[in-house]
Backbone:
């Protein structure tokens, strides 16, 4: 339900013509200020140990490493979001440009979209101990927490004035950082200022051996339960902010990383909708995007005309085609092309056309067993929904009952789903998601329901016609089945956490190296490449067996059908590369677009005629030879010529 | 792409077609035209030049044979209304007035058919006079009451059969108005004896020509079932499916496969951008011929409303190094390729362009297998594809079949790495077996990588954890036994898997995918076609019933499950939260948000009566000042101070440096005053601010700041936003102009 009183923030207004989806989600701008405590205890090195698993970092350096990792990660995942790092309790005082307003506060990286130099600085500090020792020197007196909070207030106000999400990540091991009550009261006031400003304090407490971290002593008076920008977002499990114990099994760094990662992106609902069970019974749910394809930034235009390389932003203006007159956005009309002319509707009519299917809702139509949801019935990613009490009291218990029932009986709901006004209605399956934990006891999959949009009849394509009717026998299938069973993934499950996107990782690794002007790494680490050695070890024998069975069966079936069996190239029985792909020899007959032979092309090239060919011919030629067919015409011509050269033509 | 099509409509326009019969609300002809226009506009909407249409009327007042047939003898009252050609919107316009009942009943259907045949023959010839490959169709609609000369009947049939033998079949469809239909059991009472004879003759004719003989009623009913667009499958990947590395190891498996789309979202037609032409004196371009398709006052009908296409123009801008805060335009020639790393621009020269690309080779490689039953069905994030063996490669077919059956029997899916083309980024896909009757294939969907998963945490739903780490199992947020039981009964009662009935009356699944049609897609294409033939109608028709069929549970199932639903509703006891009490009195101190500990911060501070608004802590102090008072003067004073600070921020801004802060302050002021129900306070401020900004009264040219306010829609608070406002929505909208 749209909240009419909610104000539009810049860039977050609903686009009228927007098809659907996460536009409003993407534009939420997030600014994170890391505030890291630098005190004697925070700098204490763990005892030296031979054990590889033993703790290596002081709490402060673990926090810096976290910040370093988060910064790199955010450049990839939220390239337009800001991040800053504030050290407090340091001997040095500097808020940039020698500003010393806030005692014992040192601004390591100003709140901004990170630059390459920020990353470099942070890395040097995280990895070079000598460098770190110079800066990380605690002041005699710990910094006043009120000062830190007001400092954060000023940084947020000036650097990220209209960001809808502003968060202060506070890393400390001191659960009572004041001496007198007076100081505590000031801190409480400053914390309230931050809250009123619209900023959230996220506390990452660290406990030391022999000294726990008791939030109730001090911080529970400073931290507010909800975020001002999204008051009824479910607060994560209250105990989730783990008190990291130094010197324990899992390293401090790992624990801190895990809790910071779960807050890496600000959580904000994609939609808030009624889930309707029947006439007069609705509950409130909120939708979240938990799965989304992360891609690297598109290439941009850089201006090289000045001293410093700068990113050029494109500004688009609308022009009337006939008169080249510049047109204001309000003048633009939408019209449908039809029969050589246009069909137009008034804006009111357009709204009526799109909105004739009713208000945004998730309306349950009925239920079916999960077995009636084949894998092919998929068109897009699923959206996660979780109950919200803000519109309907009792939503959570009803939602919970539904989720548990669906889980127990392997059922799904079918729903009529309109995500928001102007969105196209879809039919969706509502499937239950079970809460899962990883080996550390952390939640790895949240409990809730998932909305899987289903295809319509219009979205279904036909299976291309198959020629030939060779079918596997039970014997063959059983033989192959042994191979399948030998090669199960761990726990026979797919775990996305095990497969970083190799393209994305490589891209940013190179880009980072170039931005920092460093050596470019040579070999990518690609976890998606199959483990060939293991495969060979486990199933070589089975494959050989299958190969023999296959050969016999193929002879039998193709013989029966009077088909002429292609003689296999392989003489060795152990080599069972089945259908050796025969590179198509270029057809020799003249004419026909895909008919040019190497020789013909070679002759043409001598006369300089390759560039006179049209694109389909060039593409056809390249495609027949398994070459890349992308790019502009000049690229294609180049590639043809390279190919000819490689053939000595 | 479909092949070439030629369709000729042969329409009965007799006086008798003007009658309204059998308690219908429209005349026979208008009824028939529903079908005709639907067919014609569907073809027009495709925009295909190779789909031509001709229209012939018979039993018309005049005779016009368009030189198709020389003799007029026997061809009276037949009129070629449109030659065989691609129909455009303008042709629809000119056809419409011609399709009216005539004042005669004479004219011979069979002669009109002969004209149609000639039209098709002549219109589908190649340049050398040879017959081209065409889908030829003749669609006849008649009420069957006219006189027919049947002596050439056999010749017509012979002609049809001959053409069919030669591979140039013409499909003939005859739709009769109120003809008898043995299939639906429809039989017209007190049928005209002539009609009865004609029906028999026509039925015999059409059947001998291997055509379709039906009633208009059935044809119109079928119109409501949306037509699916067929698309020729195009392989997105042709290559190998491999297990193991055949370069390094001896025993590996390689199958030649092809990958085709299985699901692909069919998008509704999209609107293009146009502007109303301003230079009406100049010659009209091609896009401007009669756009008289608009109803409503603002949009004049006829050439006055001519539209011109909109073109986008791009300029490139960078920060001006000499003038901080200002932008300057740069030449596209000075631009090169680069990427953003954070806020650092990384320039990558043309020759280095590939350095950031991961080197990959095309291939589909198996990584391992997972159990079907433990796979999380919500993980797939893409549309689905088919993977089949390479065409006519029997070895691959047998090998893939073995693989499909092995997966099926093991209850497993395969995880594989796919690179569709050399140099493309790798994808992880899930392969599932699909065996349906004689058809076998693999289905694939894309899986998420690590980076694609957002690790948000949510509290458990089946228990509550307290801060101290205790687990609670009874809580108002947790369902009790009654609710669990009621939910379980309700879910079971609303089961759809056997709710529908198939042709034999056996229970079958309700709401199958093949029965659901994309509502918006068909709504938009229907309404465009409707508007094409109803340019002046003011009311839009509602969406077709079939498009909203699945927008609510089936009524009788709802009725059946009434008791379970009532029980669920009772056990759930859900209550709507009353709309927030708004107004200045809402902000009682005890309602203020408290920190986790529940501490009353104001009490801690000794409940101050006044808060001074500080420029350095503007927004918090402003909010706190408002929270402490409900006195109008105090509110006004706070707002005035805020306004002064906003103007100061703008005045002292170097370039745009202070605009962000000012804008945020404007937003807070607007929001708070709306909530305090003092919209006039804000409206007065924003009017003033606008004039000062545009009048350059705040230390220089500050128009950019006004555009920011406008872009953020922080203008006047109108009645819709606040009941206390006397500003209308139009007034608020106008405020943004100028």
Residues:
């Amino acid at each position: 339900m749209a909240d009419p009183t909610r104000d539009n923030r810049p860039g977050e207004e609903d686009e009228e013509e927007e098809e659907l989806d996460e536009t409003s989600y993407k534009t939420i701008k997030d600014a994170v200020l890391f505030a890291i405590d630098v005190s004697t205890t925070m700098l204490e090195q763990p005892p030296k140990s031979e054990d590889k698993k033993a703790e290596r970092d002081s709490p402060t350096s673990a926090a810096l490493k976290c910040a370093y990792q988060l910064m790199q990660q955010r450049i990839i995942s939220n390239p337009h979001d800001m991040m800053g790092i504030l050290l407090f309790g340091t001997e040095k005082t500097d808020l940039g440009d020698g500003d010393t307003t806030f005692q014992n506060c040192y601004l390591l990286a100003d709140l901004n979209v990170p630059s390459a130099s920020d990353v470099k600085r942070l890395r040097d500090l995280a990895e070079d101990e000598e460098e770190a020792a110079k800066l990380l020197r605690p002041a005699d007196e710990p910094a006043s927490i009120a000062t830190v909070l007001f400092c954060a207030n000023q940084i947020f106000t000036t650097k990220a004035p209209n960001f809808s999400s502003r968060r202060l990540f506070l890393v400390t091991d001191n659960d009572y950082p004041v001496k007198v009550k007076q100081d505590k009261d000031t801190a409480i006031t400053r914390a309230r200022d931050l809250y009123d400003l619209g900023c959230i304090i996220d506390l990452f407490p660290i406990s030391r051996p022999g000294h726990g971290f008791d939030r109730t002593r001090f911080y529970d008076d400073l931290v507010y339960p909800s975020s001002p920008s999204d008051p009824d977002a479910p607060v994560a499990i209250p105990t989730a902010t783990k008190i990291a114990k130094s010197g324990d099994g899992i390293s401090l760094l790992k624990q801190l990383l895990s809790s910071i990662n779960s807050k890496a992106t600000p959580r904000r609902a994609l939609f808030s909708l009624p889930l309707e069970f029947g006439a007069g019974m609705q509950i409130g749910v909120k939708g979240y995007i938990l799965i989304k394809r992360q891609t690297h930034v598109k290439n941009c235009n850089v201006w090289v005309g000045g001293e410093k390389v700068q990113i050029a932003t494109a500004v688009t203006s609308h022009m009337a085609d006939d008169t080249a007159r510049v047109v204001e956005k309000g003048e633009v009309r939408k019209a449908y092309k039809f029969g050589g002319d246009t069909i137009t509707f008034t804006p009111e009519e357009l709204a009526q056309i799109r909105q004739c299917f009713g208000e945004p809702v998730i309306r349950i139509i009925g239920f079916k067993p999960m077995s009636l949801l084949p894998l092919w019935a998929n068109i897009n990613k699923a959206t996660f929904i979780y109950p919200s009490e803000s519109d309907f009291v009792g939503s959570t218990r009803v939602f919970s009952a539904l989720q548990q029932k669906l889980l127990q009986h392997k059922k799904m709901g079918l729903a009529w789903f309109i995500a928001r006004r102007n969105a196209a209605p879809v039919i969706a399956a509502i499937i239950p998601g079970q809460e899962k934990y990883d080996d550390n006891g952390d939640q790895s999959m949240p409990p809730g329901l998932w909305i899987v949009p289903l295809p319509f009849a219009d979205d279904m394509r036909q299976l291309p016609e198959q020629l030939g009717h060779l079918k596997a026998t039970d014997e063959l299938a059983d033989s192959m089945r042994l191979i399948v069973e030998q090669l199960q993934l761990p726990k026979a499950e797919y775990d996305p956490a095990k497969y970083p996107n190799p393209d994305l990782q490589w891209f940013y690794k190179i880009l980072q190296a170039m931005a920092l002007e460093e050596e470019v790494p040579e070999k990518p680490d690609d976890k998606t490449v199959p483990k060939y050695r293991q495969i060979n070890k486990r199933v070589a024998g089975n494959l050989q067996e299958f190969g023999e069975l296959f050969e016999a069966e193929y002879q039998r079936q193709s013989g029966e059908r009077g088909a002429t069996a292609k003689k296999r190239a392989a003489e060795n029985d152990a080599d069972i590369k089945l259908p050796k792909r025969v590179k198509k020899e270029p057809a020799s007959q003249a004419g026909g677009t895909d008919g040019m032979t190497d020789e013909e092309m070679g002759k043409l090239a001598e006369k300089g005629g390759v560039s006179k060919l049209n694109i389909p011919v060039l593409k056809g030629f390249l495609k027949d030879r398994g070459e890349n067919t992308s790019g502009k015409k000049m690229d294609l011509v180049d590639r043809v010529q390279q190919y000819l050269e490689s053939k000595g033509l | 792409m479909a092949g070439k099509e030629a369709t000729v409509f042969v329409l009965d326009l007799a006086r008798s077609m003007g009658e309204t019969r059998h308690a219908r609300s429209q005349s026979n002809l208008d009824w028939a035209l529903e079908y005709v226009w639907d067919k014609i506009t569907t073809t027009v909407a495709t925009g295909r030049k190779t789909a031509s249409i001709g229209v012939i009327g018979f039993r018309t007042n005049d005779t016009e044979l368009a030189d198709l047939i020389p003799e007029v003898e026997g061809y009276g009252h037949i009129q070629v209304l449109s030659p065989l050609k691609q129909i455009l919107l303008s042709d629809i316009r000119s056809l419409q007035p011609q399709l009216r009942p005539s004042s005669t009943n004479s004219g011979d259907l069979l002669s009109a058919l002969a004209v149609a045949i000639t039209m098709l023959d002549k219109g589908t010839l190649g340049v050398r006079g040879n017959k081209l490959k065409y889908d030829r169709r003749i669609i006849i609609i008649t009420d069957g009451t006219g006189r027919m000369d049947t002596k050439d009947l056999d010749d017509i049939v012979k002609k049809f059969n001959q053409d069919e033998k030669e591979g140039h079949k013409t499909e003939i469809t005859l739709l009769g108005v109120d003809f008898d239909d043995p299939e639906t059991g429809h039989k017209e009472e007190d049928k005209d004896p002539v009609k009865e004879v004609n029906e028999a003759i026509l039925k015999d004719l059409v059947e001998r020509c291997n055509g379709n003989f039906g009633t208009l009623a059935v044809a119109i009913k079928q119109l409501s079932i949306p037509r699916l667009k067929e698309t020729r499958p195009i392989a997105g990947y042709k290559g190998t499916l491999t297990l193991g590395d055949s370069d390094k190891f001896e025993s590996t498996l390689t199958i030649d496969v092809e990958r085709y789309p299985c699901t692909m979202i069919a998008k509704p037609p999209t609107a293009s951008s146009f502007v109303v032409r301003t230079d009406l004196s100049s010659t009209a371009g091609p896009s401007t011929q009669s756009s008289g398709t608009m109803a409503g006052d603002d949009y004049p009908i006829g050439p006055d409303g001519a539209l011109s296409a909109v073109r986008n123009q791009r300029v490139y801008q960078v920060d001006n190094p000499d003038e901080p805060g200002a932008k300057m335009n740069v030449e596209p020639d000075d631009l090169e390729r680069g990427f953003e790393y954070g806020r650092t621009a990384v320039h990558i020269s043309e020759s280095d362009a590939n350095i950031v690309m991961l080197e990959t080779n095309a291939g589909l490689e198996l990584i391992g297998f997972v159990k079907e039953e433990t796979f999380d069905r919500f993980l797939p994030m893409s549309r689905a594809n088919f993977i089949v063996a390479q065409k006519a490669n029997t070895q691959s077919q047998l090998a893939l079949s073995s693989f499909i059956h092995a997966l099926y029997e093991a209850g497993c899916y395969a995880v594989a790495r796919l690179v569709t083309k050399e140099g493309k980024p790798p994808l992880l896909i899930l392969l599932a077996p699909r065996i349906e009757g004689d058809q076998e294939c693999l289905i694939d969907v894309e899986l998420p990588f690590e980076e694609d998963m957002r690790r948000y945490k949510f509290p458990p739903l089946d228990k509550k954890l307290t801060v101290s780490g205790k687990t609670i199992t009874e809580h108002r947020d947790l369902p009790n036994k009654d609710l669990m039981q009621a939910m379980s009964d309700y879910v079971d009662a609303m089961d759809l898997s056997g709710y529908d009935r198939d042709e034999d009356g056996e229970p079958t699944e309700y709401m199958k995918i093949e029965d659901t049609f994309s509502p918006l897609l068909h709504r938009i294409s229907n309404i465009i076609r409707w508007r094409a033939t109803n340019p002046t109608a003011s009311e839009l028709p509602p969406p077709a019933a079939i498009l909203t069929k699945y927008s609510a549970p089936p009524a009788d199932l709802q009725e059946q499950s009434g008791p379970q639903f009532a029980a669920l509703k009772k056990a759930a006891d859900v209550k709507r939260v009353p709309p927030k009490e708004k107004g200045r009195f809402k902000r009682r101190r005890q309602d203020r948000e408290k920190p986790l500990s529940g501490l009353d911060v104001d009490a801690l501070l000794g409940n101050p009566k006044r808060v001074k608004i500080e420029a350095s802590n503007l927004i918090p102090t402003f909010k706190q000042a408002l929270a402490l008072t409900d006195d109008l003067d105090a509110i006004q004073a706070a707002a005035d101070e805020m306004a002064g600070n906003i103007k100061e921020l703008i005045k002292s801004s170097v370039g745009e440096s202070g605009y962000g802060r000012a804008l945020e302050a404007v937003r807070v002021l607007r929001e708070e005053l709306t909530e305090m129900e003092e919209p006039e306070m804000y409206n007065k401020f924003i009017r003033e601010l606008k004039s000062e900004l545009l009048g350059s009264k705040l230390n220089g040219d500050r128009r950019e700041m006004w555009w920011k306010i406008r872009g953020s829609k922080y203008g006047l608070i109108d009645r819709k936003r606040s009941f206390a406002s006397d500003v209308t929505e139009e007034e608020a909208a106008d405020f943004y102009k100028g």
The two ends of chain B are 50 Å apart (CA to CA). Residues 588-735 of chain B form a domain with the Serine Threonine Protein Phosphatase 5, Tetratricopeptide repeat fold (CATH 1.25.40.240).
